[in-house]
Design brief:
five-stranded mixed beta sheet, 52% strand, globular, Maltoporin, Chain A, mainly beta
Length: 759
């Protein structure tokens, strides 16, 4: 569709499609239950109660345990890159960016998508940048979910449910080996301890050298070794009470800051240096500093359900701790140790958070259903940004300390901020069956979030610069004790939807909702530092949009959709059109010369489009699946630089296309051979509000395939491959200045073999 299409055309087209297909559904014979010849009906928890996917009035993409296994999903990218209108990037600094329908996540600020694991909402996408293992179901909810899931669910939510402890003793083990010296192991064991207590333990380990090697040091720049584990206990002393306790850990070591730099006038590797080109991704790594990445993550949660008869009382308590450090060469990543201006960068995030949710949920077996609750969060973060002279060609030791002049690698810049967030929100929802076919859903939440920042960097004079290490002291004239700010953010987030069951196999719906992401603080003194850096680089003051404080982001979204099950439930179609108005959209700004990573606001972005996904089970046993998403997201207002109005919103694909096929063939009475192939096309994308010339990435086609031989439910062997076309592309482009970008490569072709046994 062309950009000139209006929302009314989208709506008219969708309603016409719904009417015609619903008519076909009426004429098709029905079955009371799913069978091997029909598509599986799925129960989801999108509305925080168990419901049939067909009846949930929102766009939800679901992967069951069977589908996760069949597709070989072990990372978030494996399923998000196959979901229409979703942009997903990750790098090896621990960052993950999930953008839905033109609403984008921003580095170092809160996500726009709530990530909920076993009922606990994660406070940072860094916690999501881990391997997936022993998972029961994944639900991807598009559109604003703040009314139900609260803070940071403005664009949607990802709900992950891990496998529950089993009634009988069981287990599994998976081992794989692939190119780039990649090994992986995942295993689980589960069963009863007593009549009232069950357990489940699961582990995952992966080691890879990655596809790229630094030609100066020989370092495998994307090497990584994550180790994860989880223990769950399920206690059910009666039909009324259930206590579900989980504890998990993750430890990762590897490389980091595996970026290429493009600088006009500076040829680097195969980059000629004549102009920025986001599609010239065939670049080597040439730095002589090896990156260092170390992360530890621990989490625990306890969920208690008690049946009061008229309603279920649920308490969910969560706590986690993250210690994330990464360091390496500073841009432009040259072998420049000992040269004037050569520097090494180190960053760290040390997070602690505690959350509590209490809610009452009425029974499902009544026409008027309700839910009410209260949520609270206390989140603490120490954030470090440290620059040192590059005199040894190695990440400095000791870490996160000021190294004086005369010592190796003296500190040139040191930043340490302490952030606190206290959030609380009452919420409620009702679901009312107006008739047997017409259903009303109303939900609301009022978020209050109190944020503060303290610049706790020592106020000592930096002997190298002659000024205070503390930017706040240096640039604002405050004392260290005065270098703190706080602000409260408030927002009411309603959501209203109306759905109509056209037939037992066809539902149409319309919804309205608001989303909210809190504002916050950049390091105090950021604006003054960046103005000085811009002036030194010959850039005008108008190129700096950063303020020391950034405002909240609020979105208002409208959606009309249809869900259809046709041809005796052999064909499933889910389609929706949407429009979202975003005020205060938060975006990332980075100036490496001062080591500052900051956030800005775009006054208004308007996003509209549609997405559709289809699954068809053909009579011959072949399953076809696919989806298409189109997003037209543009900058509607930007007071900092009005010339950017009309630019494409950053971080959102113009369109996405997913096509795939799979079929199981019997090779004996107990063995099956199942090939699967899938193509994902990511449309063009801009990365900054400037739409900096040369930074638009063209469409990328990623092809993957899997061939699985399985024997009953006891063992299977699979061969797999990803990016089989060996496309060379940048997964992320970070424009720094009009003549300078920092770029992160996507993985080249990967392949391997995997074996699983179950007992």
């Amino acid at each position: 569709m062309k950009r000139s299409l209006s929302g009314s055309i989208y709506v008219t087209s969708l309603l016409a499609l719904g009417a015609s297909l619903a008519s076909a559904a009426d004429q098709a014979p029905k079955k009371e239950e799913s069978s091997a010849n029909t598509l599986e009906e799925v129960i989801v928890t999108a509305t925080k109660r168990n419901e049939n996917l067909l009846r949930v009035p929102m766009t939800v993409s679901v992967l069951t345990a069977k589908e996760i296994e069949a597709a070989g999903i072990t990372r978030a990218a494996d399923f998000l890159n196959s979901t229409p209108n979703i942009t997903f990037q990750e790098d090896n600094t621990g960052e993950t960016f999930i953008n839905i329908r033109g609403q984008t996540s921003s580095r170092n600020s809160d996500p726009n998508v709530a990530i909920v694991v076993d009922g606990v909402t994660l406070t940072s996408v860094r916690d999501f940048n881990q391997d997936l293992y022993d998972v029961e179901q994944i639900e991807v909810l598009k559109g604003p979910q703040s009314a139900l899931y609260g803070r940071n669910a403005a664009a949607g939510a990802i709900v992950v449910t891990t496998q529950a402890p089993s009634d009988a003793f069981e287990g599994s083990a998976t081992v794989s080996r692939g190119n780039f010296d990649t090994s992986r192991f995942a295993g689980s064991v589960s069963g009863p301890i007593s009549d009232t207590l069950k357990f489940r333990a699961a582990v995952s380990f992966r080691d890879t050298q990655g596809p790229f090697t630094d030609i100066t040091t020989g370092e495998n720049v994307m090497r990584t070794t994550p180790t994860l584990g989880r223990l769950a206990l399920l206690y059910q002393p009666s039909d009324k009470l259930t206590v579900d306790w989980k504890m998990g850990f993750e430890v990762t070591h590897g490389g980091t800051l595996a970026y290429n730099a493009q600088v006009v006038g500076l040829p680097l590797g195969n980059f000629p240096g004549t102009a920025i080109n986001a599609n010239d991704a065939d670049m080597p790594w040439i730095t002589n500093v090896m990156g260092v990445y170390d992360e530890k993550y621990y989490s625990t949660s306890i969920k208690i359900d008690y049946d009061l008869g008229f309603a279920k009382l649920t308490s969910i308590t969560g706590a986690n701790y993250l210690d994330n450090f990464f360091g390496g060469d500073l841009t432009p990543y040259l072998p420049d140790t000992g040269q004037p201006g050569a520097q090494i960068a180190s960053y760290a995030f040390i997070d602690k958070n505690y959350s509590q949710e209490l809610r009452l949920t009425s029974r499902n077996d009544q026409p008027f259903r309700w839910q009410a609750g209260l949520y609270g969060l206390h989140f603490l973060r120490h954030q470090y940004e440290v620059l040192n002279e590059d005199t040894l060609g190695a990440v400095p030791s000791p870490r996160l300390a000021i190294i004086p002049p005369g010592a190796p690698e003296p500190t040139t810049s040191f930043g340490h901020q302490y952030y606190t967030t206290t959030s609380y929100a009452p919420f409620a929802s009702i679901q009312y069956d107006v008739t047997g076919q017409l259903h009303l859903n109303v939900a609301g939440r009022y978020d209050t979030e109190v944020r503060s920042v303290s610049e706790v960097t020592p106020g000592d004079i930096n002997p190298i610069t002659g000024e205070s290490y503390n930017l706040c002291v240096q640039l604002t004239g405050r004392t260290v004790d005065q270098c703190h700010d706080s602000k409260s953010f408030h927002q009411f987030e309603p959501k209203v939807s109306l759905s109509y069951d056209v037939t037992p196999d066809a539902t149409v719906y319309a919804s309205y909702g608001k989303g909210f992401k809190s504002g916050g603080f950049n390091p105090i003194g950021s604006r003054q530092a960046l103005l000085a850096a811009a002036a030194a680089a010959g850039q005008p003051a108008s190129s700096v949009f950063v303020q020391d404080q950034f405002d909240k982001e609020v979105s208002t979204s409208y959606e009309i959709g249809a869900k259809l099950r046709l041809l005796d439930r052999r064909l499933a179609i889910n389609a929706a059109v949407f429009q979202t108005n975003i005020t205060g959209a938060e975006q990332f700004q980075f100036i490496p010369s001062v080591g500052l990573q900051t956030t800005i606001n775009i006054d208004k972005i308007k996003s509209k489009g549609f997405d559709v996904d289809v699954t068809a089970l053909l009579p011959i046993g072949l399953t076809l699946f696919g989806g298409y998403g189109y997003t037209d997201a543009t900058v509607e207002a930007f007071a900092a630089n009005p010339s950017f109005v009309g630019n494409a919103a950053p971080g959102s694909f113009k369109y996405t296309l997913n096509l795939g096929a799979t079929q199981a063939f019997a090779v004996s009475d107990r063995a099956m051979l199942t090939p699967r192939i899938e193509l994902n096309r990511q449309g063009p994308i801009w990365w900054d509000v400037n739409n900096t010339p040369g930074t638009k990435r063209d469409p990328v086609d990623l092809l993957k395939a899997r061939l699985t031989l399985s024997h009953s439910n006891h063992w299977e062997v699979a061969a797999y491959g990803d990016n089989l076309l060996n496309k060379k592309y940048f997964q992320e482009v970070v424009p720094i200045l009009s003549n300078f970008t920092v770029d992160y490569r996507g993985w080249t072709r990967t392949y391997g073999i995997e074996g699983t046994v179950k007992f």
